[in-house]
Design goal:
alpha/beta
């Protein structure tokens, strides 16, 4: 019940009830969409304005990916809070050759129900244009509320023949195929993997980026003892997080991301239990030790895409001395320059085909 009340609070806070009633049902004539022209338009919906920089990294990478892979298009971003405000105007102006992209991430489930309900609204409201949910992790809880939520989601997703879902790891891929049908589901890495942000760096210090929320799995006592052990062993310990305590607008996004990317790029080793903490290390070429979270998104993202990278180490080990030994190993890899490139861009070929309006027979659904 506590989780449900928190979800309801977030949904009110982040704009479902107010904008839905005021702007969707009543209408808001002040909301305008850019003038129609000959270009194919890409409407990217449900992007963040909260302080999770992992989600902002997704928004940044989505824009980069779409503009690089769809020629001569018009990119239009609609934040989470604006979806209901602008839905009618989008529907009035959208053309069959346009594309609606739903922001990727890890919110397909009942933990962040306000996000899931907004996605359902998009899928049910826009029926005559291709909709693609960018790479996602699915995680519905095995509770009464979780089961009811999954039933509602299945009904909505299956009702729209133009809606396609992209899983970002094989565990979600198998669940999505089972629940929504094989014809709707594809597999691709998290879109942030498509970035390459390696550059000049000045490696100094150990960075920690640990979560403190419902997705945490590692023990709090272990985290505290680990920080104590690190402070005894190393001179420069930087305790950070990919969550900032203020809202981040679209115009502020790049600056906030550059700040955290620079922190990671200049670290000797990063320790994290955040998926995008791990991914930020991959795209900046930074050695990383990553611990698991409460579901499968980190473990399977690592197993599916990163096992060939010696400088990224996944572990469930909560022994401080052994973690420090692993840090020393990664520092040696960095010193000898054995930092390999990230994942092969060819792994995004399925997604490229999907956004390019390819016919289904031309879309590769599995990883080769």
């Amino acid at each position: 019940m506590k989780v449900f009340l928190k979800q309801l609070k977030h949904y009110i806070q982040y704009g479902f009830l107010g904008p839905f009633l005021q702007n969707f049902i009543i209408g808001n004539k002040r909301n305008k969409i850019e003038q129609v022209n000959e270009k194919r338009r890409i409407f990217v919906l449900q992007t963040p304005t909260h302080g999770n920089l992992g989600d902002h990294g997704i928004a940044y990478a989505q824009k980069d990916f779409l503009l690089n892979n769809i020629k001569d298009c018009q990119y239009i971003e609609i934040s989470f809070e604006e979806v209901f405000k602008k839905a009618k105007m989008i529907k009035k102006n959208v053309r069959t050759n346009d594309l609606i992209v739903i922001h990727g991430g890890g919110n397909m489930g009942d933990m962040y129900l306000y996000e899931e309900l907004t996605r359902r609204f998009i899928v049910s409201y826009f029926k005559n244009v291709r909709i693609i949910s960018f790479p996602q992790t699915i995680s519905f809880s095995d509770t009464f509320l979780g089961k009811i939520a999954l039933m509602g989601t299945k009904k909505v997703y299956k009702s729209n023949k133009n809606f396609f879902i992209v899983a970002r790891e094989t565990k979600s891929y198998q669940i999505m195929k089972k629940e929504f049908g094989e014809e709707k589901v594809f597999l691709s890495p998290d879109i942030v993997f498509s970035l390459n942000l390696r550059g000049e760096n000045s490696r100094n210090g150990i960075v920690t980026c640990f979560r403190n929320d419902l997705e945490q799995k590692i023990d709090n006592n272990f985290k505290e003892n680990l920080i104590i052990g690190l402070e005894k062993k190393y001179q420069n310990i930087i305790v950070t997080d990919s969550i900032v305590k203020h809202r981040v607008s679209i115009s502020q996004r790049n600056e906030e991301l550059q700040n955290i990317w620079n922190t990671f790029r200049n670290a000797e080793v990063v320790l994290t239990d955040r998926l995008h903490g791990m991914i930020f290390c991959v795209i900046t070429g930074t050695p990383c030790i990553v611990f698991n979270n409460f579901n499968h998104k980190i473990e399977y993202s690592y197993k599916n895409w990163l096992t060939h990278l010696d400088y990224i180490k996944f572990t469930n080990n909560e022994n401080v001395d052994q973690v420090i030994e692993l840090i020393e190993y990664l520092k040696v890899i960095n010193q000898v320059g054995n930092i390999k490139e990230g994942i092969n861009y060819e792994n995004f070929s399925t997604l490229i085909s999907l956004v390019s309006n390819s016919t289904r027979s031309k879309i590769i659904r599995e990883i080769s």
